[in-house]
Amino acid sequence: DGTPLHHRHILFGHAFKGQPAGRVLLERFRAGGGILYDLESLTDESGRRIAAFGYWAGFAGAAVALRCLAAQTRGGICGPLRPPGGRDALLSQLRAELGTRPRVIIIGALGRTGRGAADLCAALDLPVTGWDMAETAHGGPFPEILAHEVFLNCILAGPGCPVFVPSDAGGQARALRVIGDIACDPTSDFSPVRVYDRVTDWSAPALRVHDDPPLDVTAIDNLPSLLPREASEDYAAQLLPALRGLVAIDEGVWARARAAYERSL
Known about the structure:
This protein has helices at 20-32, 54-73, 87-97, 112-123, 133-136, 143-146, 228-244, 252-264; strands spanning 8-11, 35-38, 104-107, 128-131, 150-153, 178-181, 207-211, 214-218. It contains eight helices and eight strands, in the order βαβααβαβααββββαα. It is of the alpha/beta class.
């Protein structure tokens, strides 16, 4: 509600990468003298996150992108989404909806999110091209992306990140029909997908950015909610050891999270 935040809070603030809404949140903490321990900033000594929803975000994000493709193939656009009742039910739905075996390219294939996306595609026996840092190090352009029907962006973008899909990609010769921007950060200056400027949601998961031939983008920022049980059980198991360490909040994981907050503040 805009009132200052006076206490210690543990949450997903999405406030440490220059997001406009994140600045507002940080200003509230500064006004109240509170501390934000952002769950995205809980890291081990090497800087790797100790708990993340990435795998199930990738799995669900790939599924939504394929549903967008199926709807597009039928001459429409993907309608509202509802949790299907679990992983197996989701796969059954997709098998029934997909009339073809689209070629899929995943960038960030070696990370948590990319592995989730790849596992969804493998369960459906889809041909997948898996790229990571080695394949994108030359900085682009990347015509290979346009040669696949589905592109799944699974990287955490930052300074120096190349552009994978430029703003004029819709008008280029392409097989590409659906972009699943699973990383979902369109307002960032570092976004590698430049054909859209806003997230989508459960009620309207697909944003049509070009008509002839169609190109849809799906970019939902709470994808693990499509598979709430699987995602919750997985994340809880990862987070529990750190929660047990809350008695020593000035040490280790929690001290690093506080330092990240103070740098951002």
